[in-house]
Amino acid sequence: MSRDGRLGKLVNAAAAGIRPITLAIDPALLDDVQQTLNLLGRSTRRACQA
After folding, report:
1. pLDDT in tens, 3-48
2. Cβ neighbours of residue 2 closer than 8 Å, sequence gap 6 or more
3. Structure letter (DSSP) for residue 29
4. Is the model's pTM score more than 0.90?
5. By the 8 A CB rule, do 47 and 37 touch?
6. Element (H or E) spanning 30, and its range?
7. Phi, psi (degrees; rounded to nearest 5) at 20
8. pLDDT tens profile 6-18
């Protein structure tokens, strides 16, 4: 989730373009992230603010 990662590059490409881009995130992936953060003792809200 770094700025130079794949998601960051997609966001930068979308911001530079004139056409809207729609991205979809698999809900199962979000569940996996949330479960991992819970195992690490972190809240999803804090992780997104970091």
Report:
1. 678 778 878 888 888 877 777 888 888 888 888 888 888 765 555 5
2. 8
3. H
4. no
5. yes
6. helix 27-39
7. -65, 145
8. 778 878 888 888 8
